[in-house]
Amino acid sequence: MESLNKEHLINNLQKERKIVAILDNYSVHKAKLVIQASKILNIKLIHLPVHSPHLNPIEQVWKSIKKKHIGNYLFDTIESMEEQFEKEFYRTINNDSYYKNWIKKFINLN
Predict the structure, then answer these.
(1) Average pLDDT for 6-30
(2) DSSP 3-state assignment of 61?
(3) pTM greater than the 0.70 cutoff
């Protein structure tokens, strides 16, 4: 915290684009140090309700990839599976409608 808590660093970081981190309710994620550091680093923490993986956007990405592209396909090698997974992962997360709809539904970034 000491190295982060410098006025010139705080001022510069507040000018940067805000980062949003989506977290579960693991106690470490709610520690004072994490909360203080996130404010200094211009990171908005969003804690999901307990037992709510359906609200976590990465869980939706995994579900989509598994259902549509990985789950029903027999791969010859681990490498071919990794290649297909990576391709579908980036295709999914780069889809504007995917993340814009999630943001509208769950987050107010203002």
Answers:
(1) 79
(2) helix
(3) no
Is the pLDDT at 110 greater than 50? The verdict is: no
* pLDDT value of residue 64: 82
Give the end-to-end CA distance of the chain in Å, rounded to a whole number. 26
Cα distance between residue 15 and residue 34, in whole Å:
20
| In the chain, domain spans | 1-47, 51-110
User: Residue 99 and residue 101: Cα distance in Å, rounded?
Assistant: 5
> What number of CA atoms fall less than 13 Å from residue 58's CA on the CB side?
5
How many other C-beta atoms are found inside a 10 Å radius of the C-beta of residue 98?
A: 16
Give 33 or 12, the one with higher predicted confidence.
Answer: 33
Lookup: tokens for 109: 């970034």
Of 37, 59, 55, 58, the residue nearest 47 (C-alpha):
55
Residues near 41 by beta carbon (within 8 Å), at least 6 away in sequence: 4, 13, 19
